Amino acid sequence: MKGNEKKIGISGGTFNPIHLGHLIIAEMVRDRFGLNEVLFVPSGMPPHKNLSNVVSSEHRFEMVNKAVANNPYFKESRVEIDRKGYTYTVDTLKNLKEIYGNGTSLYYIIGADVLNDLPSWRNHEEVFKMCEFIAVLRPGNDMQGFKKQMEFLRDKYCAKIHFIDTPLIEISSTQIRDSIKAGRSIKYLVPDCVEEYIMLNRLYI
Ligand code: ATP
Predict the structure, then answer these.
(1) Ligand 1 within 6 A of 64 CB?
(2) 171 pocket-lining for ligand 1 (C-beta < 6 Å)
(3) Ligand 1, from 25, 38, 146, 172: best to mutate by most atoms within 8 Å of Cβ?
(4) Which residues contact 112 (CB under 8 A, 6 or more apart)?
(5) Which residue among 39, 68, 133, 173 is best mutated to probe the pocket of ligand 1, counting the most ligand atoms within 8 A of its Cβ?
(6) Cα separations (Å) of 66 from 8, 60, 176?
(7) Nearest-angstrom CA–CA distance, 188 and 59
């Protein structure tokens, strides 16, 4: 990384809903990599996910909007939810390069589980040229498999992938949705404002 360039982190996800795992990791990455900003990009229609239990883009965006409001380095982005049809990361990166200019470096933050999916992303070779990846481990991820996949992507595509050692955070959106359905507490798993929004709008019940 060069010294004076603008560095933007991208935290992309379904955010169904956004949880503290997303926020803690983004803040740690921002701090360690000296990012100027982290952009949270809720997906529109992700081609990889089963959409039957995904709440509307507007609900997911609103939860992200509230969750990032008290961190001056965090910002929400509508770039994917305002796009028609399936959302592909390659298009998002092109949009962000247009908005921020070519001198800006983009760092895509991902859980190690996503590393295996990268070769199936549309125009992944172009994606590897447009951004660097910062990967973190999630509970259950296998470190050996992760290292092998990182080497494979570096060798085959010259992908720039960084690994950052963070605490394992055992929180997932699936777990939160399941807890709500079962009437269990989600306190301390999502920000209070997100919990309030979920309850007010009776999401995931
Ligand atoms: P779901 O359970 O619905 O699949 P999720 O919790 O994995 O959702 P996503 O919105 O799909 O959340 O994740 C967006 C990104 O955040 C992915 O790169 C994912 O790996 C990462 N991520 C999610 N939860 C964590 C966590 N606890 N620790 C580290 N990374 C995470």
Answers:
(1) no
(2) yes
(3) 172
(4) 135, 136, 137, 138, 141, 146
(5) 173
(6) 20, 10, 17
(7) 20
* 165 three-class SS: coil
111 lines ligand 1 (CB under 6 A): yes
Roughly how many angstroms between the first and final C-alpha of the chain, as a whole number? 45
pTM score above 0.70: yes
What gap in Å lies between CA 178 and CA 191, rounded to an integer?
Answer: 17
> pLDDT tens for residues 47-85?
665 667 899 999 999 999 999 999 999 999 999 999 888
Give the up-direction half-sphere exposure of residue 129: CA atoms within 13 A in the CB hemisphere.
5
